[in-house]
Amino acid sequence: MKETEKLNITKSLKLFEEAKALIPGGVLGARKPSDFIMGEYPIFLEYGKGCRLTDVDGNEYIDFLCGYGPIILGYREEEVDDAVIQQIKNKGYCFTLTQPYQNELAKKLNELIPSAELSIFLKTGSDATTASIRIARAYTNRIKIMRCGYHGWHDWCVEMKGGIPEKLYEDVYEFHYNDLDQLEDLMKKYGDQAAAIIMTPFGHPLHEKMQTPKPGFLEGVRKLSDKYGAVLVFDEVRTCFRLKMGGAQELYGVTPDLTVLGKGMANGYPISVVAGKSDVMMAAASKLFISSTFFPNSLPYIAALKTIEIMERDKVLDNIWVKGDRFLKNIQNIIDKHGVGAELSGVAPMFFITFKQDEMNTRKGKRDDFYTQLIRKGFFFSPHHHAFISYRHSEEDLDKTAQAIDESLAYVHDKYGR
Q: What domain range is 342 assigned to?
């Protein structure tokens, strides 16, 4: 199989060199070049429309990262953007007091999400997960936290511990998704001191295969939470408004005490939510302080209300599940054909292609070669993060992607063999 020609990313690389003199490392967080494949991926983007991105060098891509999840409809979705523009022009959005859209969105969440009796609106997923922990600790008068999954960059949960005193995370204990025995052991030891169990109800660990819950797993977590009086928090930043309108809790039928929302609910506008049962949430009214100058800004509320309206009206998630199921079946057939150790995990709206470890230790090489071929062909995936399907991915887009995956796996097969 012929190797795909390398992209011209000269301008991206030049801007990155400039950025390194202006920003620590040039680019921070999950967008830094080392989180992709150095020298192969663009570093700066120019614009996006629908499911396509164009970088500063003019290369176009069919995008499957969707801004790391917020783009559920598509880039520059006109109905959403027009609603925001009208708010800016006609009413404004940054005031000393809150505009009434807060109430409208809270009512909508109450209607859609099983646990959402009361809501607090913030800006980022890290804001919301951290607020949920503060609420749980205030409500229970306990300290210890059991956690499963990625919950953001704040002191209590970030994986990289640089700059963080140990005392700020020494009461947080990690358990693995689908390992109920491990959580039970932790609760036997610390349950009477546990303020919360926080977890992603659908397993999307960093760099690893995605997991659906084993029979009885989420139900078991719910029972342990009730047994020890800990607040159960579902981190649904990625899953709500993507797996179901009511989140993974609606899909799997297990209701938490608190739910953290964000990403897809406003199609890219910055908003997050802690929603939950009234008795737990009322701790935020009198026992703690949560505030920001920008939390009440109404533009994300407007975007969220319009995004949810479109998703309900056009049955967006039904569309994504149908075309995504077809696409994943196609991908699995391609993977089976090539037999190079690739693995497909996840569900129709969000999926991941990873590679098995083997005796020759070729996993990383196969992965990097596979994703290098895809980016060169104009398909934007991450080697380290799962992919998303948006409403604006057409059947034709997905068929083209399947063909590119087929060709890229054929290249890996030719280079490494089975």
A: 10-75+316-416
pLDDT in tens, the chain (418 residues): 689 999 999 999 999 999 999 999 999 999 999 999 999 999 999 999 999 999 999 999 999 999 999 999 999 999 999 999 999 999 999 999 999 999 999 999 999 999 999 999 999 999 999 999 999 999 999 999 999 999 999 999 999 999 999 999 999 999 999 999 999 999 999 999 999 999 999 999 888 999 999 999 999 999 999 999 999 999 999 999 999 999 999 999 999 999 999 999 999 999 999 999 999 999 999 899 999 999 999 999 999 999 999 999 999 999 999 999 999 999 999 999 999 999 999 999 999 999 998 888 899 999 999 999 999 999 999 999 999 999 999 999 999 999 999 999 999 999 998 6
The CATH number covering residue 386 comes to 3.90.1150.10
Q: Which two tokens stand for residue 382?
A: 């991450």
| Residues 6 or more apart in contact with residue 43 via CB below 8 angstroms | 9, 12, 13, 15, 16, 26, 27, 33
Domains: count for the chain: 2
Specify if 53 maps to a domain: yes
Distance CA(118)–CA(133), nearest Å, equals: 16
Euclidean distance between CA atoms 310 and 73, whole angstroms: 9
Residues 121 and 71 occupy one common structural domain: no
Structure letter (DSSP) for residue 254: -
Q: Which residues pair with 344 in a beta bridge?
A: 353
